[in-house]
Design goal:
Blueprint lengths: L4 E4 L3 H12 L4 E4 L3 H10 L15 E4 L10 E4 L6 H8 L8 E4 L4 E2 L4 E2 H9 L5 E5 L4 H5 L4 E6 L3 H11 L4 E6 L2 H23 L4 H21 L4 H4 L2 H10 L6 H10 L4 H5 L5 H15 L5 H11 L4 H9 L9
Parallel strand pairs: 1-2, 1-4, 2-3, 4-5, 5-8, 9-10
Antiparallel strand pairs: 6-7, 8-9
């Protein structure tokens, strides 16, 4: 039997990826921080809180024992972007040096303005085998075995290809690239821009306005990616345009739903509804990075201003509509 794949994080996405890895033929260790939750999951074989009605694959072992991670050949870090540093620092000593690490959070760390690969490099060293996974994927779809395609990126193209092959299964296609930054920009940026799409929908501005917003938001994402070394073809792929289309058009997306509530008049606190909308945390960092390299991102700036309470939805919409006309390519 092959060495297990470990998944750190027992939320919806972690459970879905654990199921996908098991379907791909691997024994899986699903690590949860809460020992009681791990015991319940192991006993009931269903993550009733996050994925009700979806049975846990027989090849998955749920545990809160960090020592179990030493068995793994690959560790998928499925924790929120803002907690990745702390969780990785706590758990990395539990597995063997040289273990492959796949980062599954889509975001930018607040305070440091660091992408997830940079956070990982701080903890496990710049030469560690680290990859990032991103793309248009709802946890419920992946968990139920519905057809889904995502992108895995690693600076070492051989590592990216090997991990993509290992994680691919009958209904999950994992494409690979060595453009880590391009994949990270797409994953982090689309969350912020999906909030803007939700605001337009919640405000009742119409589908024409929302289509225009998504197109202009994607232009911002392309400019930002170029400024930070991402390749245009990566942003045109699954982890960029594909993920933006999905996240900016469905209430299943927490970021879109968050924006929808904001557009309908809710405060940022009430709009969150106790759920994590990663784009709300990423917005300020994305804008700070854009300004550092003189990248114009008016849609992202509008989202950051609304989320922080610095501006109202009405003020931001008026400001966007009053912007000078220019060539579409600018």
């Amino acid at each position: 039997m092959s060495r297990p794949i470990a998944v750190v994080g027992g939320g919806a996405w972690g459970t879905a990826l654990a199921n996908a890895a098991a379907v791909a033929g691997h024994p899986v260790i699903l690590w949860l921080r809460d020992a009681g939750a791990a015991v319940r999951l192991e006993a009931t074989r269903e993550n009733a809180r996050y994925l009700p009605g979806v049975p846990l694959h027989a090849a998955i072992r749920a545990t809160a024992d960090a020592g179990a991670l030493r068995e793994a050949a690959t560790v998928l870090m499925v924790t929120p972007a803002q907690t990745l540093r702390a969780v990785l620092a706590n758990l990395a000593p539990s597995w063997e040096a040289g273990t492959d690490i796949v980062l599954c959070a889509k975001g930018i760390e607040r305070g440091s303005d660091a992408f997830m690969s940079a956070v990982a490099a701080d903890i496990v060293g710049p030469g560690a085998p680290v990859a990032v996974l991103s793309g248009p994927s709802f946890a419920a779809d992946v968990a139920r075995g519905l057809p889904t395609a995502v992108t895995l990126a690693a600076a070492d193209a051989g590592l990216a290809a090997r991990l993509a092959t290992a994680l691919s299964g009958p209904n999950l296609r994992v494409y690979h690239t060595d453009d880590v930054r391009g994949v990270e920009v797409g994953g982090a940026g689309k969350n912020v821009l999906a909030i803007a799409s939700g605001i337009v929908a919640g405000r009742g501005l119409g589908e024409s306005a929302r289509a225009a917003l998504i197109a202009r938001a994607f232009a911002e994402l392309m400019r930002f990616a170029r400024a930070y070394g991402g390749r245009p073809e990566t942003l045109m792929g699954l982890s960029g345009l594909g993920d933006l289309v999905l996240t900016a058009s469905s209430p299943q997306s927490r970021n879109f739903a968050f924006g929808l509530a904001l557009g309908a008049g809710a405060s940022p606190e009430d709009a969150a509804g106790g759920k994590l909308a990663e784009g709300a945390y990423t917005a300020a960092a994305l804008v700070a990075l854009a300004r550092a390299r003189a990248v114009e991102m008016p849609v992202a700036e509008a989202v950051a201003a609304i989320v922080s309470g610095e501006a109202s939805v009405e003020t931001v919409i008026a400001a966007l509509l009053a912007r000078p006309l220019k060539g579409e390519a600018e």
